Amino acid sequence: MTRTVDHGTAKLMPDLDRPRAWLLTVDGAPQSYVDLDDPGHLEFEYARRLAHVLDTTGGPGEPGAPLDALHLGGGALTLPRYLAATRPGSRQQVIEADGGLLELVAEQLPLPPGGAGITVRQADARAALEAAPDASADVIVADVFGGSRVPAHLTSVAYARAAARVLRPGGVYAANLADSAPFTFLRSQLATFRSVFVELCLIAEPAVLRGRRFGNAVLVASQGELPVGALARRTAADAFPARVEYGAALERFIGDAVPVRDEDAVPSPEPPGGAFSVG
């Protein structure tokens, strides 16, 4: 199925190996993969890494208790469905700027009856973040791409401060980013969030960190202690193992990068031809 949405052309393609699984692309760039029968199945490696962050994020009550989550960027609601399945009772708000995409997903990939604690709203991610109440979320997941680039207004110190304000004490911010050597964008993002948050780590495949190819990296930040050991064990056990950079190693990676101001912000780099495209 192909449909024109607000920000491009969306296509839903079935996975022939899984009866109710679908790949969503926008202008040829993969946006989401969702299995309606098995929301715990995560096809994209970066989604698995974000899921590891969700799995290891604490919250009120016992380990594995429901979370209050704010998702910036909706796609096919892959991670909200995952969290609803793995931590039932979680309250989740999803912000997606593309109303046409939201309509397509609601029609073709509906949520379970009752919504599973997931509410979806059309809005700009930063505007919604800045309007959110103080200390209202245990976790913020940012997976916002305009086409295949992170919008500039979601990269600055002011944006990071808004995220810190919305998180509860010990809450976690996790963002899907993409870059390649010399990592000008990624290093600037780490410097930006380091200027606001006490704890920081980065999850990425070794080949990406060594500059061998363009790829995704997950930035994780908190004012509390991050579960770096648990994240390292989980990501190392993935089909495509990743590494967790933290502490002195992360400081060396950041180098002389400086925080980004709103007036200097730029989108993430355009992926090289064919890096993420799907026919």
UniProtKB/TrEMBL annotation:
<keyword id="KW-0620">Polyamine biosynthesis</keyword>
<protein>
    <submittedName>
        <fullName>Putative spermidine synthase</fullName>
    </submittedName>
</protein>
<dbReference type="InterPro" id="IPR029063">
    <property type="entry name" value="SAM-dependent_MTases_sf"/>
</dbReference>
<dbReference type="GO" id="GO:0006596">
    <property type="term" value="P:polyamine biosynthetic process"/>
</dbReference>
